[in-house]
Q: What sequence folds into this?
């Protein structure tokens, strides 16, 4: 069945790129509502922004959604990953500014908050997009693919010159609580040189040693080091789940990313929905629903880090 959160929950912090304070409140919603953002700091006009692939104003550093009136909300990928990873299909996400707070740079605080509130079943069957044809997009050396699969599976590979990251590869099926157990506490990461460049361009103004993993060559600069030896590739998988959640319904497909980022994953979704007979919307029976992200999530398996 479709789901929503049982009661509202708020998260406060600062935007990663703007540095501005922000509070986001996730509210229950009815069946077939989907995920929508609402800008509560705006008094007039259309304040609702759909969490959907065709509302993405593509950016290399984060995922930004924008409605037809030009109102936007950015850095939505971590909260979208948490909603998908907890199996929440319907919610109204109110936010009092243009950027979702970064919290600790991962999704774990969102996941723990959602699960503390609880998930409510709704009187409507869950729908999912089933990938029927393989679709691939590229951008230079970067590549992303969606292929048929009976569950959402994510394969990701990264390769950085910095030895602190280097070459990393991981694959996971997103059912049986694997997102919460394996990925949700993995933080965003960057190179020290990239931080300096972003600051020079007015970006990453809210970045700190508490909400990002910063590397310089073979050194981890962030106090406490990594939460996982392969935390960077795990975070890329977290980002991919959040960006794929913008399909508008859970996906049944095999995603493979090589050096892919937010923009390329959105290009992939656009290509999927533009390719004839590549995807279809299906009503999930109980066996199919058990293979969706969020199924099998157990509280005790959520990392105790935030």
A:
């Amino acid at each position: 069945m479709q789901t929503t959160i049982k009661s509202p929950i708020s998260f406060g912090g600062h935007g990663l790129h703007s540095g501005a304070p922000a509070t986001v409140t996730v509210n229950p919603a009815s069946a077939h509502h989907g995920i929508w953002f609402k800008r509560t700091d705006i008094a007039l006009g259309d304040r609702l922004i759909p969490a959907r692939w065709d509302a993405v104003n593509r950016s290399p550093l984060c995922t930004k959604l924008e409605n037809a009136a030009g109102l936007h909300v950015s850095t939505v990928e971590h909260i979208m990953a948490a909603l998908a990873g907890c199996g929440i299909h319907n919610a109204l996400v109110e936010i009092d500014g243009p950027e979702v707070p970064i919290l600790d740079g991962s999704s774990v605080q969102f996941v723990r908050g959602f699960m503390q509130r609880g998930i409510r079943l709704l009187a409507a069957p869950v729908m999912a997009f089933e990938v029927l044809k393989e679709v691939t997009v590229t951008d230079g050396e970067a590549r992303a693919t969606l292929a048929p699969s009976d569950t959402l599976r994510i394969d990701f590979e990264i390769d950085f010159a910095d030895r602190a990251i280097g070459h990393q590869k991981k694959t996971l099926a997103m059912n049986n609580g694997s997102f919460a157990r394996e990925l949700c506490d993995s933080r965003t990461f960057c190179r020290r040189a990239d931080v300096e460049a972003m600051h020079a361009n007015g970006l990453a103004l809210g970045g700190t040693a508490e909400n990002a993993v910063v590397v310089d060559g073979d050194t981890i600069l962030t106090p406490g080091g990594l939460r996982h030896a392969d935390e960077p590739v795990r975070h890329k998988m977290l980002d991919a789940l959040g960006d794929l959640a913008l399909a508008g319904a859970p996906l049944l497909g095999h995603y493979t990313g090589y050096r892919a980022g937010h923009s390329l994953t959105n290009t992939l979704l656009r290509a999927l929905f533009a390719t004839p007979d590549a995807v279809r919307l299906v009503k999930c029976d109980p066996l199919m629903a058990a293979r969706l992200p969020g199924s099998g999530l157990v509280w005790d398996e959520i990392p105790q880090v935030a």
About this structure: The first helix runs from residue 77 to 85. The chain is about 20% helix and 30% strand.
